[in-house]
Design goal:
homodimer; alpha/beta; about 210 residues; two-stranded antiparallel sheet; 10 helices
Chain lengths: ~210, ~210
């Protein structure tokens, strides 16, 4: 295999970032998460905070009002401008060598890449709410409300730029519920798969048809 | 843990049945697949073939034409009648002891069961088409056409009776692409998770917030 890449898509509060870090540590390869934000800020000229908020989420204001606002560069909206740079950065990173890339539609941007393992990490609303309170120091009265807002805006961003459905099981090689399976165990499963892939499926003769043909 | 149950939802041609059998063999617990068909036929009085076709798929004729056709028992459509018996059989099986149950909306029927591991096995259209030709002895010119028909009717059946979305990643604890991961490896991952669950998620202090609160 050449450059084996792991992309980790994740629900906000599911611990997907931590899973990505653990996988990279266990495999001894780079994990790109905050590093992507820094590269984006550097190449785009936007602040770290602006890139953080606009490189993965639709803005709170309506999408159209953003697209058609005066905030454009050479006629391209700021968010489209960030997307173009982000896509280039992710393709460059993947070409350099094996790595883990967290979020930012890397699964879509690298969909034609050889030796790609696409992962989706999710958890129940209750599990994620408890997590952002315990780990993120969430102080809002309703963490569920914040999670729903994050889910809605991240989904809208992903589906706008990829034209794919966020969280559709067929889009990922492996999808894990971190609230039930545990962060460490999720990482172990991904590391194990990374080491063994690619693997040919061996059809089994005992898997006979069970339905009459129509 | 009490009765640990594994439910395996699967795309037609993904090898999910074989994964279920392997998991049950490795764990030394029963796997209910064809056994469900036989119990359903026995308790409903329908033929094995009729139950096979109508216990997991909407009919080729339109759903409404089936519901309002004269084919009813005490005013209940045949398919609703089968669903009622199927639900009872699955609840009885789960109450008896640990087991693997393949398909038939068991993930939904047992959703409130303690110690449930819900699995979804899928694969690309190309991988499934190759599989039904190699393993199932598929002889049609277009296995893709048959797969699409199966997908459409199984999805419609699931969503009609469960009011849940088929293949929505959040509905399953683990979802695996058997075409990429391999049948044997899928089974090993599920067996490993079965043995280790339940497992508490341990929040990690290094998973700091990366987005400004709104």
């Amino acid at each position: 295999m050449k450059n084996k890449i792991v992309t980790i898509s994740r629900e906000f509060g599911s611990g997907g970032r931590t899973v990505g870090k653990l996988v990279a540590q266990k495999l001894g390869i780079p994990c790109y998460d905050q590093e992507l934000i820094e590269k984006l800020a550097e190449e785009s000229g936007f602040t770290h905070e602006y890139v953080q908020e606009h490189s993965e989420y639709t803005p709170h204001s309506s999408w159209l009002s953003n697209v058609f606002s005066g905030r454009t560069i050479n006629g391209v909206s700021n968010q489209d401008y960030l997307w173009i740079i982000q896509r280039k950065i992710i393709l460059d990173i993947a070409a350099k060598g094996p790595c883990v890339i967290v979020g930012r539609c890397a699964d879509y941007i690298l969909r034609d890449t050889e030796d790609l393992l696409t992962v989706f990490i999710h958890a129940s609303m209750q599990s994620r709410a408890e997590r952002i309170v315990k780990v993120y120091g969430e102080t809002e009265n309703s963490p569920e409300k914040r999670l729903k807002d994050k889910d809605k805006r991240r989904t809208a961003y992903y589906e706008f730029y990829t034209d794919m459905q966020w969280g559709k099981v067929q889009n990922y090689h492996v999808a894990l519920d971190s609230g039930v399976i545990g962060i460490e165990k999720c990482a172990d499963i991904i590391v194990d798969l990374y080491k063994q892939l690619p693997q040919e499926q061996q059809p089994s003769a005992d898997d006979k048809p069970t339905t009459s043909k129509k």
